[in-house]
């Protein structure tokens, strides 16, 4: 699945080297904050549209994000070739503000391919790698297997690793005991938790509190609850369209304005569900079109929303006062 | 399943009449606060031990609870006869402080039996009825069916109804749209949410905010997060053993001391999981023995913990500083 | 839930005593054959309609069934009082042909209630008891707990016990190792398997082949495959309306006419799914009305089919040539 | 994920052209029979061991299989690069007997990548392509999306397409209505059904009987039942070690010797479960070592069996008389 390094040797490397990004002794990199998981824009003939990508980045760059996640689930990474995955990251590295973090999804099914992709992501400018759990053989993905996988990747990676647990896509929950063990690795800095189980999140935070390990919420739907329980940020699909509002929710939580935070959180739940579980990436991209970004089509087999679905999607935004 | 009224005619009615508990015009009863779901003590020969029940109540009465839940899932209600269910509630009504609320589980599989049990619970002194979703025919338990069920029960009940959603036991999630519809009923005052999905809880709170409808967390594991998102209390198995601590968590949340709340919440997650999902009622009862209450055996087919399980249970308390 | 014996002392006992039904030394009772799980007819005001029950029995009595299952899931047993459960069995015992077997559902959540109900069912004329897995506390229903439960019931029952595994209703699969252990009990004669997993059924048959233990398919949808793998019959909701056809499928399988059996089996799958998983008991009862039986309403919270559902239900029968 | 054609231009094309394999007018290719899903042997350093592959093929070539499946789930295809996937197929094409069929797994997440991989598989000598359902975005993999995906692939493929439904790996069931629609495509010849739901299989066979569409069982555990219901063969992991026995079961079924078939089927269930659901590919490869094939290690994150697992695996074979 992975190419030999020379094949993608022509990909432009990120302007920033890796110096300073390797795990310093003592303190790990701080990933606290809000990130949109950037979508991959396609032309009508399903080519990656790098122009639109940069255009989106310019608009997203005005929002006070901590950084950008590239090739998360919302980036349609399983539909991209290795070359495309790296090229997209490289372009975003160029286009994004220099003071933001770039978290690049580098998970593959095999440990070897994940190691190679992580190295490549580092070469094209990623600040950290977001590594989804391998899942095709989920029946054998025990704690021991997953600990071994992530340890190998973290050992060999020049950039910090963020674990990525997203059971809706993988049909798999990275066991808490595996997370606790992995939190002790000097090159594993945190986890993106997309399952929405705050009891689990609280337990992870509690059991890793001596480890300099950070938890990011994987969705805006439970962002306030995640902050309340000790998470330090979120990677939120909704931030692609309501980025300012998600960042505002962050500020309200961080400054202890919980009542205002609650009001805002409530208004974000339905829009968030609409662009994630309910209508998926086609819903997110359609909404981006409404909010002045380029959404465009998905690659097949993902399909455009039906008119009926589009109407329901719109209602989830209008009924909460966002459109 | 239900007896004719004359059969349990001999059951002692609660000292308090129903006056003042029927839904007043305008404002529904306020159920905010912390409740332990009281266990049912059995003798070695599996008879209800009313003496131990009263003894437990006396000790629980010293904790600043809002009230008591009787015949929730932790009360082993599916193992009790109708007569026992009512007798237990009657006894607790006598034994408990007069200023506390008594929420009695009255859910049965059929609507008719649920109506009758609710009426009976009111007669023996319940202040409100906690009605679990019927679930044996879960494939047909649509929103429409559940709305019809609860509406009928609420129409005919002299005491307020609290919906009870506990998917771990029922294999069923009461749909949010059904909850929203039911929240408009003048005799339905809230919901106990045991699933732990705070996004769902937030949505329910958001969509019922004009309805004078209250949400209680069904477990201590996500109590802080529930308060953060707008819940008003919790019915927590753990409160049977760490009642003061759960009430302290409530106070910290209500007074905005979120940092202290977080520390406390973290220490409660493992003990909570231990007495609920991990070791169930046998785990809870064993822990009660440790904390000066009478736990005792469960009715069959529930079985005592093995020595190995008991050791793990103890570790979940000792490692968090509670034993 | 259970009444003291005197309460149902007035229920008419079945004409047949229990003599000869207790497990003979050496050989267990033979339960091979086809059974309809009889529905419980209700009047418009939700009373049990015993007249219609007897009328249905007369018509069902002309089909070459091995016997009748009463108070299986299709009998709406969770909606009946204990008195009704026994009265229904008693009436069917009177109305049914003397040479047929009566299998009565006697499962309750507690072991004690199940023992008592089984004794009562024997008293009112049941030939064997069909005992569903307790399930409300499914998280603790380990092999050990279920083995203990069924052993106790079988030890104390004057009539043979048939295990009943129906994961669609219980959310629980009786573990194969528990079935194998229980098959050695002299008073446990077989299992009704409703899950449709023929690999599991084959394994049970293989591992109990020295035990004089019989497996019945729990649905007509996989009846042929069950015979092929070694099952000896079926308890099939569809037999309430297409009883002759289900019995014909039995004969084709038993006489090795597999090609004709296959053609017939294929035509039964959609109607079978329609009256089980797809439209449940309301679908079965509606179909009974079409086929000259009395179906009538279900007890709440089960609801009548919508006109649209009814149309789809009809299509599942007409498109296969049954209406 | 896919390479440009020139990259793998050096891969040796299969000796056989595609002539005669394109869908003839009228009659589709007949895929009836038994196939082992060939494993991919690796060296101690996780390189593909082509020598061992050919050695295994020679031994497998003596069994009366209809052909070989390459890059099914047991081939660890998600762990292979595109180049490796094609090279493995090419090598097997050379090594295998000329009169056997080669079914090559060509499924990828995107429609475009699947089309390209299918074309490549045809070029290196595959007779038909086995296309697994895309699954990462399973929440959006509606019937419409899957019909569109497979139609596109079948339209553009020079070789026939076999649908591949394996919910244990994909968390997704290809809807029956989609299968029925797709069965009408002239270049879609059948389906591999690995879920083990024979009711579903029977329904598919029934509803496609006018379509010249064949169903293969995806496991030896329910092979007899599948033949009984109308399937025409099987792709069985167990055939990698007990190939002669699986072929004998086929013959017994095809010649109507159902009693002998049943005895044999029963003895194969536990070994089959052991090398599939219970111990996965590590279990299958370990067993291959015992039976005179080269099993060897899996690629990470799959791990070797523990000594305890290995003992249980062995017992599943010895207790049924195979070792």
TrEMBL record, chains A, B, C, D:
An annotated GO BP: glyoxylate catabolic process
Spans through the membrane: 215-242
Keywords: Lyase, Membrane, Mitochondrion, Schiff base, Transit peptide, Transmembrane, Transmembrane helix
E.C. code: 4.1.3.16
Residues at the active site: 164 (proton donor/acceptor), 192 (schiff-base intermediate with substrate)
Record field: catalytic activity: (4R)-4-hydroxy-2-oxoglutarate = glyoxylate + pyruvate; (4S)-4-hydroxy-2-oxoglutarate = glyoxylate + pyruvate
A GO-annotated cellular component: mitochondrion
UniProt xrefs under SMART domains: DHDPS
Compartment(s) where it occurs, according to its Swiss-Prot or TrEMBL record: Mitochondrion
Domain of life, source organism: Eukaryota
Assembly and oligomerization: Homotetramer.
Name of the protein in question: 4-hydroxy-2-oxoglutarate aldolase, mitochondrial
Origin organism lineage: Eukaryota, Metazoa, Chordata, Craniata, Vertebrata
């Amino acid at each position: 699945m992975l190419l030999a390094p020379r094949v993608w040797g022509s990909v432009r490397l990120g302007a920033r080297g890796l110096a300073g990004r390797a795990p310093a002794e003592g303190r790990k990199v701080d990933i606290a904050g809000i990130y949109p998981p950037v979508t991959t824009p396609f032309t009508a003939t399903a080519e990656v549209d790098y122009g639109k990508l940069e255009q989106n980045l310019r608009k997203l760059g005005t929002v006070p994000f901590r950084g950008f996640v590239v090739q998360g689930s919302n980036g349609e990474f399983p539909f991209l070739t290795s070359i495309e995955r790296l090229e997209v990251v490289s372009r975003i590295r160029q286009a994004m503000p220099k003071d933001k973090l770039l978290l690049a999804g580098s998970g593959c099914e095999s440990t070897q391919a994940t190691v190679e992709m992580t190295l490549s992501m580092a070469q094209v400018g990623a600040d950290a790698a977001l590594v989804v759990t391998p899942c095709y053989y989920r029946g054998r993905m025990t704690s021991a297997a997953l600990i071994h996988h992530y340890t190998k990747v973290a050992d060999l990676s020049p950039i910090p690793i963020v674990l990525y647990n997203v059971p809706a896509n993988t049909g798999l929950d990275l066991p808490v005991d595996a997370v606790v063990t992995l939190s002790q690795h000097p090159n594993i800095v945190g986890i993106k938790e997309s399952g929405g189980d705050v009891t689990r999140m609280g337990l992870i935070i509690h059991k890793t509190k001596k480890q300099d390990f950070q938890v990011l919420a994987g969705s805006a739907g439970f962002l306030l609850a995640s902050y309340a329980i000790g998470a330090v940020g979120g990677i939120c699909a909704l931030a692609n369209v309501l980025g300012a509002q998600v960042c505002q929710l962050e500020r309200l939580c961080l400054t202890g304005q919980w009542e205002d935070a609650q009001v805002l959180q409530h208004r974000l739940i339905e829009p968030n569900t609409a662009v994630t579980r309910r209508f998926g990436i086609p819903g997110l991209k359609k909404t981006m079109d409404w909010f002045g970004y380029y959404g465009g089509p998905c690659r097949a087999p993902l399909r455009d929303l039906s008119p009926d679905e589009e109407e329901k999607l719109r209602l989830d935004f209008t009924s909460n006062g966002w459109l």
